[in-house]
Every structure is written in C-alpha cells, then in structure tokens.
Write a structure and sequence with these properties.
Blueprint (H helix, E strand, L loop, with lengths): L2 E5 L2 E6 L13 E5 L7 H21 L10 H16 L2 H11 L3 H4 L9 H11 L13 H20 L26 H11 L4 H13 L13 E2 L4 E4 L1 E4 L7 E4 L7 E4 L2 H24 L3 H14 L4 H8 L4 H7 L1 H10 L11 E4 L8 E4 L6
Antiparallel strand pairs: 1-2, 2-3, 4-5, 5-8, 6-7, 9-10
Length: about 375
C-alpha cells in the first residue's frame, strides 16, 4: 500500500512504481491529501488508509508512460518478448522473425518518433538489391512486401502502447514491377495429372486428388477419418498442419470461422477414400501383428547369419560384442538348431557383398552394406 507521511496539516501519499522495461526504477507517484475537519484520530487514520488504497489503485491501473526516446531495435525486443507471443500464432511469429532480421541494419538505430516515410521507402529499395542466400536470386517482391507488413504491425502496436502518435510506415510500400500471374492448369492438364496420379501409391493419389477436387492445402494434412461423412459426401475442415523450421509439426484449429467449413466430394472420390482407409487399416494391423522394433530386427539379422553358416566369432564381430561368449550365450539355441539341421544359404541377401575379415580365423566373412555392382 502507499506510504503515508505527515506534512503539517496535510499528508503525502507515495506509491512506488517498480522498474520499467529498461530495468531502471520508475519515479514514485505522489499526492497530497488533507483530512476533513472534525475527525477523531481513529477516523482520520481510517480515512487516510482509504485514500492511500484508492491512490495506489489509480496509479497501478494507469497505463505506463511510454518512453518516446526508445529506438526501433529496442522496441522490437520488447515486442518480441511481451506482445508477439500472446498475439500471434507460432507460424506467423516465426515468419515475422525472419522479416525482422532484414531491417535493423537500416532502421534499428532510429528512435521511433524520428522514423519518417522516406526511411521505409529507402529500406525497400535496398532490400530489392539484395540476393537470397538460398537461391542466389534477388529477393522476391513478396519478401519485401512481407517486411513492410511486419513493420506496420509492430509500429501499430507501438501506437497502442503510447510510443507513437501515428504509424510512419503506413502507405510507404508500392509494389515494384509487374505482378506474376498465378499458374492455373487447364482442364486438359488437370486430367493428365489425375491420370498420372493413378500410377502412384494410393496415399499420394488420394492426397493430391483431394486438393484438386476441394482446394484444400495444409488443412488436407490435418484431416481425420472422423471428419468424413460418407452419407452427406462431405469433409469437415476444422484444423490445419504447420511445420516450423526446427520445431515439431503443429496441428492447430483454423484461424477464422470461415476457415471452419465443409467441402464435398464425388462418388469417385468416395470410392478412393474408402480404398485408402482399407489400406491404412491393413497396414496398421500388419504392424500390430509383427510388433517388430529395432531390437527385433537385430536379433533377426543374427539368426539369419547363423542359419547361413556364420560362426560365433563372425556374428560377434558384426553385432559389436566384445566377447564371442556373449553371442553364444544369447544365440545358443540358434547355433544348436543349425548344427542339427545343417545350414542353407538363406543369408545374406543377394545385394550384400561379403568381404574377408583378416582378423578373424578361418573363412569367416563380414557382410557389408554394399550394393552389388556399385
């Protein structure tokens, strides 16, 4: 609560305001009050406490005074830390961070209040001279436009925070050059694509035919079988999938109410969906029946080597066992079975090439992962 200090016939209320974004202590807020006459000492104390609570509430609820001397690069760090995470989707924020990396060398040192439209126009002209590290080609106009949109968004938030009276980046961008027409396949080309897809795996055939027939994009990857209503021949689009570099795939709800929608499919698409569903079920059942993992395949490798006539020392070397006795303990049953039945050369596969192991005795062989003939 605010401190209360007696000053003659009046009292000084002082509220500590803590620290600002620059880690410097903010100036305390003060207010002088004078109790009404005729109050008893206890009534005066109660009145002063009430005034202290009200004044502190007034100070704490008031918006923080913005530091109008702050530079753009400083405000961007505040924006990334305090505003963007709660305002933007992860995918949008990741894209904005890429745009943010492009303008600090040109504008970062300017105070927000000193930014002028010509500064932004010059920035866009400089960006058009740069080349992409990925392609070696000049930055696309789409990239330049993205930097402008990012700046406008950041400076709009600066306005709301009281750092600016207006947005100096507004109406400073003008598209340069001719806009490229979107590539649109004609009916004949689409039919050729559909025909070609019928020679691909059913997974890709289903995926691309869904895109062609419904216009879905990333939302196609977010579909679940429960989203499909075969009776109405409809698909409920209610989520999308986004991949951000360096992070796991994100499944999220659609951004807008309009994005949460239904699309419809033909009887032919229904047949393909059902066929793909049966394929998925079959694969799931097959994997469940096998219940194989890396260790299972390792043991299979060892068993097949033994069945092919490899001795204990060879198998131990291939499996990385320091002692052949370890291999013998684990695979005694396989060696015993091999002695009783004799061995047949079922292993190695024909695409493995045997190479001698000179450090092993006898005619032992090491089967390297080398494709024959290469």
């Amino acid at each position: 609560m605010a401190s209360i200090r007696k000053r003659g016939n009046s009292y000084l209320l002082v509220v500590s305001m803590g620290y600002g974004h620059t880690s410097k202590r903010r100036a305390a807020q003060q207010k002088t009050v004078k109790p009404p006459e005729g109050l008893t000492p206890k009534q005066r104390e109660k009145w002063l406490n009430e005034q202290a609570v009200l004044f502190e509430r007034e100070c704490k609820d008031a918006p923080l005074p913005a530091d109008r001397t702050i530079a753009l690069s400083q405000y961007v760090q505040i924006w990334l830390r305090e505003i963007a995470p709660d305002k933007l989707a992860k995918s949008t924020l990741a894209r904005d961070k890429q745009d943010i990396d492009r303008f600090p060398p040109y504008l970062g040192g300017y105070k927000l209040v000193d930014l002028r439209p010509e500064h932004f126009r010059k920035l866009y002209a400089e960006l058009r001279k740069q080349t992409s590290q990925n392609t070696g080609m000049p930055l696309s106009e789409y990239t330049v436009e993205g930097v402008h949109a990012c700046l406008c968004g950041i400076l709009s938030d600066a306005m709301e925070g009281g750092f600016l009276n207006h947005n100096p980046a507004w109406r400073t961008y003008k598209y340069s050059g001719k806009k490229k027409e979107k590539l649109v396949a004609d009916e004949e080309t689409v039919q050729k694509i559909i025909t070609a897809l019928e020679n691909e795996s059913i997974k890709y055939e289903t995926y691309f035919k869904l895109i062609i027939s419904t216009g879905m994009r990333g939302k196609c990857c977010g579909l679940k079988w429960s989203d499909i209503n075969y009776e109405r021949k409809s698909i409920h689009i209610q989520r999308s999938v986004v991949k951000i570099t360096g992070e796991d795939i994100i499944v999220k709800d659609t951004k807008t109410a309009a994005g949460d929608r239904y699309v419809y499919f033909s009887p032919e698409m229904e047949s393909l969906l059902k066929e793909y569903y049966r394929e998925c079920v079959w694969q799931a059942d097959a994997y469940e029946d096998r219940k194989l993992n890396v260790h299972s395949l390792r043991h299979s490798n060892a068993s097949l080597l033994i069945a092919g006539g490899a001795d204990v020392a060879t198998v131990a070397g291939l499996l990385g066992h320091s002692q052949p006795s370890t291999t013998l303990d684990i695979y005694t049953h396989a060696f015993d079975k091999n002695k009783k039945n004799g061995y047949s050369m079922l292993w190695p596969p024909s695409f493995w090439v045997p190479t001698p192991l000179p450090h092993l005795c006898g005619n032992s062989y090491h089967y390297s992962h080398t494709v024959a003939g290469r």
